[in-house]
Design goal:
Number of domains: 1
Structural class: alpha/beta
Strand content: 15-25%
Strand order of the largest sheet: 1-3-2-4-5-9-6
Shape: globular
Helix content: 25-40%
Largest sheet: 7 strands, mixed
């Protein structure tokens, strides 16, 4: 059975401070509505790199643990690091079914529990270059490090809704904002972290929701709207987000927002 570690980031001079915990309902919306939208991305990365028995995976900002669960189902030994306490609790709850070795203590990323280094690192939410470099140092030489982010804004239907968050947010806010991804952002991050580029890919990740209410809950759970909520008020954010979603509402009431995500593969030196 896959050995599973799920840790919470704790503040050290070389790591970002933990983010405030999401309300449990918001974290649950992420786990039950939004996180599954990225399954095509997770599966494409795992297929490309042949993840399976013998893989020792470290997932940075692992959210509610779905990507780790999919990797464990392929036979990988998985470890996760997550800064948000509410999402972390859900990840532990999810992964306990796969392994009784879920650990709660420690600073993440940490050395693997086994003597062997990690053989793969994923960061489906791009981290800071220094954090990425520190995590990469825990992997064996030549191990793949996968980074992912939004594709071009013109190929992401959700960009219109997310621009609401950016427009309403306090422009001085340092976190909780969304911005379009630049074509070379991930490649620049790879170079800044001292990694060796080794290819890239794009994956269609449509966001499909049962209705507008589910779409609103799912998008709010991303955290991109937090700064907007603080700068304005919840009613204003909900009104404008609902209006931005409306063009993607189909005749049966469902919401369908095609998106493309880009990932890059790098190698440790």
């Amino acid at each position: 059975m896959a050995h599973t570690l799920v840790r919470q980031h704790q503040h050290t001079p070389s790591l970002p401070a933990p983010v405030p915990a999401e309300p449990p309902a918001r974290a649950r919306d992420w786990a039950e509505i939004q996180e599954r939208m990225l399954v095509p991305l997770y599966e494409a990365v795992y297929d490309r790199l042949g993840i399976g028995p013998g893989t020792r995976l470290l997932g940075l900002d692992c959210g509610a643990g779905l990507a780790l669960l999919l990797a464990a189902a392929r036979g990988a030994e998985v470890s996760g690091a997550e800064r948000d306490a509410a999402r972390l609790a859900l990840a532990r709850e999810r992964l306990t079914a796969e392994s009784a070795a879920v650990r709660s203590a420690g600073c993440a990323p940490e050395p693997p529990a086994a003597a062997e280094p990690y053989t793969m690192i994923t960061a489906f939410t791009p981290p800071a270059a220094r954090d990425l470099a520190e995590a990469a140092a825990l992997a064996g030489r030549g191990s793949p490090v996968v980074l992912a982010d939004w594709g071009p804004a013109e190929r992401c239907a959700s960009a219109g809704a997310l621009r609401v968050a950016a427009r309403l947010a306090d422009p001085t806010a340092a976190a909780g904002c969304w911005r379009p991804s630049g074509r070379d952002d991930l490649d620049d991050l790879v170079r800044s972290a001292g990694l060796r580029p080794d290819g890239s890919g794009r994956v269609a990740c449509p966001f499909g929701y049962a209705d507008t209410a589910s779409a609103v809950r799912g998008l709010l759970s991303t955290g991109y709207f937090d700064a907007a909520m603080t700068a304005t008020d919840e009613a204003q954010v909900l009104k404008e987000l609902t209006e931005a979603i409306h063009p993607y509402r189909r005749t049966d009431g469902t919401v369908w927002m095609p998106n493309v995500f880009r990932y890059v593969v790098a190698r440790t030196r």
